[in-house]
């Protein structure tokens, strides 16, 4: 088995470490952009519910600005995705990567026992595979 195959068989929970960044449901796009910079993340859960119902990414913000929305007044709810993609904490890195490719997305929410454990990005997966080649 090659190193990359070993990396791909790791449970996704092994790379889900930081607490999930969140913004309140009434946040503006500018609020989200500031939170992304402060938390150094590319996606943020919207709302305070245990399981979020929306997620906003850097791309969502760029699209909103390109469309002429005023970030200081436009609500994040106008641009956040409600079609969330989840995986179980025991899913492998390879399985989550395949799900990202199938859905053409960059972020997957990770849950364990019905609770949000973290958000995994395509960059996180790339880091796992890059480290396995070192």
Give your account of this protein's structure.
By secondary structure, the protein is an alpha/beta fold. It has a single domain, classed as Roll (CBS-domain), CATH 3.10.580. Helices cover 36% and strands 19% of the residues. The chain has 5 helices and 6 strands; from the N terminus they run H-E-H-E-E-H-E-H-E-E-H. It has helices spanning 3-8, 29-39, 58-66, 93-103, 122-132; strands at residues 22-23, 43-46, 54-57, 86-88, 107-112, 115-121. A 3-stranded mixed β-sheet has the order 1-2-3. A 3-stranded mixed β-sheet has the order 4-5-6. The protein is globular. It starts with a helix and ends with a helix. The model has no long low-confidence stretch (mean pLDDT 91). Keywords: CBS domain, Kinase, Transferase. Residues 80-134 form the CBS domain.
